[in-house]
Amino acid sequence: MSDPLPEPAFDDEAIVELVPMVRRIVGSRVKDPHLVDDLVQETLLRVMAAHSRVEGDTLAPYTAVTARNVVASFARHRDRARERAHLLAGDDVTEPPGEELIRQEEGSIIATALARLSPPEQEMLLGHEVQGVDTKTLAARRDSTPGAVAAQLARTRAKLRVEFLLVREKVEPTSDRCRLVLRALSAGDRRRQRELDSGAHLLECECCAVISAHLFERRPAVAAEDEVRVPVGRDADVVTARQTGRRISSELGFSSTDATLIATAISEIARNIVKFADRGEILMLSISQDDRRGITIIARDVGQGIPDLGQAMRDGYSTYQGLGLGLPGARRLMDEFDVATEVGKGTTVTMTKWQPLVGPSGPDRQREKGRES
């Protein structure tokens, strides 16, 4: 029989109660609200990492000191960057050597990409973009409507973006499905993306993962009415995922404290993707059930998987030996949590946070039922 999991030194409520204090400390020293969010979350992560060594009575003082240290550390890095800024800037405003060559190379790439369009697509795109022919005139030439021509132009531009990136990155699609998926991503056609199961394809196809990363640089988070998808492959994506999660949570009506906890959980899972996987994505969905609303985060990656999930879920397990804080920490912050992993293929983490129930169907109603019984 395996040893029981170690008990955490403090519970979830203790973490929640820390957030207002941390926000006050950081907010008194930092004015940028986005930076405040980042530093608050960094403080919570450090406190959670040290929870096994901190006694309950000393938790609040420890957290306060940690918050001040995080702000001070940020200030030192910022000042150091300012001191060295002159090393990265110069007075020479002339065109850098090779700039003309770069322009020529880009022109050649565009010409090659254009050649991959059909003759009617080339004629329509060049007529509209270069010659300035309006959609009404183009529609008359084609016995069509201006709306149909505008839609065709949008599809052609999306197709050209894909072909440009394929030529520039010197990669070739590995299947007929690749171009279909990439064009749907480039056009922002979510219905087509769902039909093609684009998310699964991107995780399986190295070619499309490379090209989609550049497509997503144009649109860091692609939003529908009830979902947002954020690709994750580098440190900057962790910040994007964290900020996006906080924004969506606030829009859904979560309190500032809960939005911070949700963003912190997303941040930890995103960090794990960057550190342990080849690439991945985080999907954020607004959900509803009966009289309550919530948010579900699905983080999928292609990577080594988790050889020993039970060990990785243990509090205090070293990040140098496994996923460590990320999974246990995120699990404590969310209401529902599930991990599916396969060694050599990747991991999917699904976690949900619900808004507290209030009113007739919430805690007050539950207390009324207790008195009636």
Description:
- The chain has helices spanning 12-27, 33-49, 59-83, 85-88, 99-115, 119-129, 135-142, 146-169, 176-187, 190-196, 198-204, 206-218, 235-251, 256-276, 309-312, 326-333, 363-372, and strands at 222-223, 227-232, 277-289, 292-303, 336-342, 346-354.
- It contains 17 helices and 6 strands.
- The chain is 59% helix and 13% strand.
- Strands 1-2-3-4-6-5 form a 6-stranded antiparallel beta sheet.
- The radius of gyration is 25 Å and the shape is elongated.
- Residues 1-10, 86-93, 218-225, 318-324 and 360-373 have low confidence and may be disordered.
- The chain is of the alpha+beta class and 373 residues long.
Q: What distance lies between the first and last C-alpha atoms, to the nearest angstrom? A: 42 Å
Rg, please?
A: 25 Å
Largest sheet descriptor: 6 strands, antiparallel
What's the total count of β strands?
6
- Uncertain runs: 1-10, 86-93, 218-225, 318-324, 360-373
Relative helix content: 55-70%
Secondary-structure topology with pairs:
Elements: H1 12-27, H2 33-49, H3 59-83, H4 85-88, H5 99-115, H6 119-129, H7 135-142, H8 146-169, H9 176-187, H10 190-196, H11 198-204, H12 206-218, E1 222-223, E2 227-232, H13 235-251, H14 256-276, E3 277-289, E4 292-303, H15 309-312, H16 326-333, E5 336-342, E6 346-354, H17 363-372
Antiparallel strand pairs: 1-2, 2-3, 3-4, 4-6, 5-6
Helix pairs in contact: 1-2, 1-3, 2-3, 2-14, 5-8, 7-8, 8-9, 8-12, 9-10, 9-12, 11-12, 13-14, 14-16
